Amino acid sequence: MFKGVKFYSGDELKINGALDDNAKFVSEKQLKNAERWSKLVEPFITKEDSDGYWRGEFFGKEMRGASLIYRYTKDEELYGVLTAAAKEMISAREESGRISAYSVEKEFNGWDLWCRKYVLTGLQHYYRICKDEAFKAEILEVLKGHADYIISKIGDGENQKSITETSSWWGCVNSCTILEPIVELYKETGEKRYLDFAGYIISTGGSSDCNFLELALENKLYPYQYPVVKAYETMSFFEGLLAYYEVTGEEKLFTAVKNFTEAVVKTDMTIIGCSGCTHELFDNSTVKQTEYSEQIMQETCVTVTWMRVSARLFFLTGDVKYIDRIEKSGLNSLYGSLNVNCNDILNLFKKKYVKGMVFDSYSPLYKNSRGRGTGGYMEFASGGSCGCCDAIGACGIALMPLTAVMKCEQGVIINYLFDGELKIDDKDGKPVALKFASDYPSGNSCKITVNCEGEADLTLFVRRPDYCRSVFVDGKDAGKSGYYELSGKFNDGDEIEIEYANELKIRKLNGKTAFVYGAITLAADETKIGEIDFDKPFKIAAPLSYEKLQPQKGEFLRFAISLADGEKLLLTDYQSCGKNWLEKKNRVTVWFD
Q1: d(CA 298, CA 332)
Q2: From the CB of residue 360, how many other CB atoms can be counted at a distance below 10 Å?
Q3: Cβ atoms within 10 A of the Cβ of 273, count?
Q4: Rounded Cα distance, 395 and 368, in Å
Q5: In 375-431, which residue ranges form alpha helices assigned H by DSSP?
Q6: Which of 82, 226, 371, 470 lies 20 to 30 A from 426 at CA?
Q7: Is the CA virtual torsion 233, 239, 243, 244 positive or negative?
Q8: What's the per-residue H, E or C state across 81-145?
């Protein structure tokens, strides 16, 4: 539908409220810490991942998210920290061009290629925000040298090692996810050897245990039935297939990715927009999500990667369902993972609490607590630690404001009813400011005021989410699902009123009940519900009756649901629940008996 879809930058876009607050929280608490960046570079100097682990993934994951957050905020202090970090990483390059946290003797085993993938990814994202042309040229040469070393060693040629023999984990799908940044390097350089290497990776099927491309094209098995069920890495490989399609137009790759993502939605997507109720594995989560489990579930890495794949599909299709998915995952699973109280978090390996990170790793759905484990927890030889979810979270945080409103050749795509301002040029090149007045994501309406000299020629596309009964634009029913086009001449001071017709909805599954309001999933929090017995079955009054209350600090929504015995059940938005996991009463539940 849309052509040339792009993000706006912080020079053009200003958002108020949760989307902006969370980006700033992560930036201040995590991304501006220069000592932290030095710690993330350290394994590439010490080679301490020669023990077979993944410390080398943290730098690139975090640099990707940090660069995207800078793109939104244009915070020059953050830019300075990232520039220094990029230079520090480049200084870890060896004469051969090799950048690895593994020694040469131990290379191309364990998580080595996975971590090298993130070196490429992180520096590529910094490259895109870099303002120094000479430094950009240097980065590109470093990236080429880094990739060329890999290509010289990995492949199907003489004295080369197959990429599906480079890890003992998950059939080497972790290694094969290097596909995506290799394609991106081809886009930057146009040098055919990178596209050829990407083609080689695809020819392996992405794993020694199965051919993901064939499985998705056949579309007979669901992801939880694949021989490899690691959700995060599998999604990452399909993102690489999508990148290759963007370059080659090979339609079967696009079909495979769409088949895969729709299968995930059907059998492995939960009510908060994440997958994997068994650790971070595809496991028919759509059905299993109502079950009580003592184990960790729904990893933040999976949430962010799902958001990334959905965003990439939206760029290609303009299909509103992909924005619906990003919003659901962001407002529930991702925002729920923010450790806003800076609580200590359980170390799964040592069974003790350690200093809390900015992101919690796992999201409970039925009568359980947060803070129950730090995903991918690794300690550094010189002290300090990091985790996979803590490093990846910033990327998802950036995607929320960046997808709120987007540009395309046809006009402006308004995805969320945010509060803020967008500065653009109209079709004649005349400057226009669009002021958005809203209490998103708590509310259902937005007023957009056009500020310009004289009149402006604009085309606006207003999203109609699938969860709305109907959408009204200037009082006119705009229908349901898709985009409503507003095109024509607007005068200074003109106002556009948008309203989503939302209502509290009940979801039933496996004899249990949940509640949603628009894109937001509701939950009960033991620290909020007072004397009501958290564990007893509830009987909801019929017909459904509720009162919408004023949200308290950190909340988007607050409802009092009438029960059959006359009591009231307090529900609030999932992302605000369970944040006090160090308290005695700390459980949350989305699904109710």
Answers
A1: 12
A2: 28
A3: 28
A4: 27
A5: 388-404
A6: 470
A7: positive
A8: HHHHHHHHHHCCCCCCCCCCCCCHHHCCCCCHHHHHHHHHHHHHHHHHHCCCHHHHHHHHHHHHH
What are the strands, taking DSSP E only, across 465-501? 471-473, 476-477, 482-491, 495-500
Lookup: tokens for 51: 């023990």
Helix or strand holding residue 216 (H, E): helix 212-218
Q: Measuring CA to CA, which residue among 64, 36, 51, 144 is closest to residue 99?
A: 144
Cβ–Cβ under 8 Å, residues 252 and 214: no
Helix (H, G, I), strand (E, B) or coil at 562: strand
- Indicate the burial class of 106 (C-beta count within 10 angstroms; 0-12, 13-18, 19 or more): middle
CA-based nearest residue to 592, from 531, 524, 528, 503 = 524
First to last CA, the chain: 43
pLDDT tens readout for residues 298-324: 999 999 999 999 999 999 999 999 999
Amino acid code (one letter) for 589:
T
The Cβ of residue 211 has, within 10 Å, a number of other Cβ atoms equal to: 16
Residues with Cβ within 8 Å of 233's Cβ and at least 6 positions away in sequence, in order, are: 114, 170, 173, 174, 177
Show the tokens assigned to 587. 């459980």
Q: Is the pLDDT of residue 350 over 80?
A: no
Helical (H) or strand (E) element with 148: helix 133-153
Bridge partners (DSSP) listed for residue 413? 406, 461
**Three-state SS sequence of 67-82:** HHHHHHHCCHHHHHHH
Query: Tokens representing 475?
Result: 């009082």
Q: Is this prediction's pTM over 0.85? A: yes
The phi and psi torsions of 485 (rounded to 5 degrees) equal: -95, 130
Distance CA 222, CA 215 (A): 9
- Residue corresponding to tokens 């659901």: 328
What is the distance between the alpha carbons of residues 538 and 473, in angstroms, rounded to a whole number?
Answer: 39
Give the CA dihedral 274, 277, 282, 286, nearest 10 degrees: -70
What tens digit of pLDDT does each residue of 518-529 get?
A: 999 999 999 999
Residue whose tokens read 């990439």: 312
Q: What does the pLDDT look like over 16-66, one tens digit per residue?
A: 999 999 999 999 999 999 999 999 999 999 999 999 999 999 999 999 999
Helices 231-248 and 192-203: angle between axes, nearest 10 degrees: 130
Q: How far apart are CA 563 and CA 544, in angstroms?
A: 9
- Whether residue 97 contacts residue 146, with contact meaning beta carbons closer than 8 Å, is answered with yes
Q: CA 146 → CA 96, 323, 358, 580, distances in Å?
A: 8, 35, 30, 44
Half-sphere exposure (Cβ direction) of 555: Cα atoms closer than 13 Å: 20
